[in-house]
Amino acid sequence: MVRHGRLSKGCQTCRKRKIKCDQGRPSCSQCIQGEWECPGYGDAIDRAFQNQSVEDFSKSQRAKQSKPSTKATPPVAWGKMLIPRGSSGSSNGSSFAASDSGTPSPHPKLSPVLNQPIKDRSISLFLSSHVLRDSAAVRGYFEYLSDFSIERRNNDLLYTCISAAALAAYANTVQSSPLLQDARLHLGHALRLVNAALASKDATKDTTVISIMLLSNFETLTCQNQKSLMDCDNHLNGAATIIRLRGKEQLKSKIGLQLFLQMCWNILLNCLQRSIRPPPYIVDLRVHAAQYADIEDPAWKLNNVVLKLVEFRASVKEESLSKRDEVIAEALEIDEDFLSVASNMPTEYKPAVFLSEGNTELAYERYYHVYSDIWMANVWNNLRACRLLLHEEINKQIENDSSRSTTFAEAKQHELSMQALHQMTFDICATVPQYSGYLPVLTGGRGSVEPPAAAGIYFLLWPLFNAGKLAGSDSQRAWIIGRLRYIGKAAGIHQAFHLADVLEKEKKIEAWAAWKIGNE
Q1: How far apart are CA 489 and CA 491, in angstroms?
Q2: Nearest to 247 by CA among 290, 282, 279, 214
Q3: Ranked by mean pLDDT, which of 143-152, 433-442, 485-494 comes out on top?
Q4: What's the gap between Cα 438 and its chain centre?
Q5: Any bridge partners for residue 353, and if so which?
Q6: pLDDT score recorded for residue 39
Q7: Which helix (H) or strand (E) is 113 found in, with range?
Q8: Which residues does 66 contact at the CB level (< 8 Å), separation at least 6?
Q9: Helical axes 298-318 vs 374-400, angle rounded to 10°
Q10: Is 40 in contact with 62 (CB distance < 8 Å)?
């Protein structure tokens, strides 16, 4: 039944309390100030069309669950991409097995209750909040999805993969277990379509690479444990293999360049986490990409130095660079390169720095930054996280070498590195208010910077996790853990919960130690 009359666009809490809602994302300022849980704004269509709500969907799903299916879907494997046994399509907590057959299994039957309005709603929310807007700049983070045209919707592979990710994001947002179960069903369908594409002439198409990246995004959204991290990386490994096969020709188109830059950063990040060298083909392709990319862009310049850091960390791990003096000297040389990138940032990249009025949990020690664009905050945070790794290594070299006494110069350097660690963690924490969307509360609504969508949270996870590992105090670590859990719930990106648990229990991420890039 269609509701008539004008609908309020505010959140449910503000509507019930009959107060004005500023519709901030992911939470409105009224809910933040009142310390209420903001339910968001995803129920407008549900209220307009009352016969098609998530609640209706959940009831029908519960009825369907009371009649479990006894049929199992046979597994399919292509390379390292494995299909879970069973019809749910879940890659969390499911057993995996390889099949001798290279042909895809029949598509699982998708829920008839999941009709087009709910799926379209999920995709619309995903594209509006989890994807960057496309711009003249080639940034390399799903911005090519912002124009999800009718032509692309007719591509069954891409449409199914984006549906799986979108339904997972929507299910997390509205906290609907049945909806998440249907997202996993779509994941199973998507995996079969991907395996079919990989075994065909479509293996190196743009849509195949994008689809595999969306599978990795699904694991980030639904992350439950370290196995989820490994599944995420295995998907990226598959996409990296296709990037290698596509060769230099892919760099000539805008979307090809965007895909390469996104994969290049993902691979460099994985290499940093594991202290392994980058695949030679990535280094070679990046040299050729310089013909088409904006090499004056701060992100490009930053990644030039990140490559040096990747090689440095691999050399230290392999012990080809092992003498304390040499390790410290090379680390300081790379740090100078990072400082050079920082000092030459364009004026518009530099943040405004503020102190909040009065004590607040929203800003660590009342200190926060405001950037004109969340991408600029991302560039800065990646630089800070890299410097954290460098100064952590410098201090490790000074503290752990018991073969000889520490010199005065080394003691001084240890102090300087401690100061750098403190400043970098402090500055990363200062970006959290803008990523989390509560700048309007801190600024009293002043300023024109809009709260970012969930897309920014993907950028924040790695720097904030590193800041948590190297936090200067228990109170700072506790604050970071609390913020990770807040943004995980508000943005529906469950990897944030797992990273918070790792920090709280001071565990190692074992999945990162075992991963290796294929086809090096």
Answers
A1: 6
A2: 282
A3: 485-494
A4: 20
A5: 369
A6: 76
A7: none
A8: none
A9: 20
A10: no
Q: ∠ CA 350-356-357 to the nearest 5 degrees?
A: 150
pLDDT tier for residue 21 given thresholds of 50, 70 and 90: confident
SS3 sequence of 426-439: HHHHHHHHHHHCCH
**Which tokens hold the place of 512?**
């990162």
Q: Is the pLDDT of residue 519 over 80?
A: no
CB 231 within 8 A of CB 221: no
Coil, strand or helix at 147: coil
Least confident of 32-46, 181-195, 218-232: 32-46
Residue 401 CA to residue 44 CA, distance in Å, equals 62
Among 50-64, 433-447, 452-466, name the one with the lowest average pLDDT: 50-64
Task: Give the Cα separation of 334 and 321 in Å (integer).
Answer: 14
* Amino acid 268: pLDDT: 94
Cα(202)–Cα(339) distance, rounded to whole angstroms? 44
Query: Taking the alpha carbons of 456, 458, 463, 466 in that order, is the dihedral positive or negative?
Result: positive
Please, which residues have CB within 8 angstroms of residue 263's CB and are 6 or more apart in sequence? 209, 213, 236, 239, 240, 243
Choose among 86, 89, 77, 109: nearest CA to 190.
89
Tell me which amino acid residue 276 is: I
Q: How much of the chain exceeds pLDDT 70, in percent?
A: 77
Q: Which helix (H) or strand (E) holds 51?
A: none
Distance CA(270)–CA(276), nearest Å, equals: 8
CA quadruple 469, 471, 265, 262: dihedral sign: positive
Tell me the per-residue pLDDT of 159-176, one tens digit each, with 9 for 90 and over.
999 999 999 999 998 889
Q: Any residues with CB less than 8 A from the CB of 299 and at least 6 apart, and which?
A: 139, 375, 379
**CA-closest candidate to residue 33, choices 476, 440, 481, 491:** 440
Q: pLDDT-derived band of residue 20, with 50, 70 and 90 as boundaries?
A: confident
| Distance, CA of 286 to chain centre | 22
| 463's tokens | 């720097």
DSSP helix/strand/coil, 32:
helix
Say if residues 162 and 126 touch (Cβ distance below 8 Å): yes
How many angstroms separate the first and last alpha carbons of the chain? 58
Exposure letters 172-196 (e unless 16+ CB within 10 A, then b): bbbebebbbbbbbbbbbbbbbbbbb
Strand partners, 369: 353
Sign of the torsion formed by the C-alpha atoms of 259, 260, 263 and 268? negative
Residue 82 reports pLDDT greater than 50: no
**pLDDT score recorded for residue 92:** 35
Tokens of residue 211, six digits: 């689809």
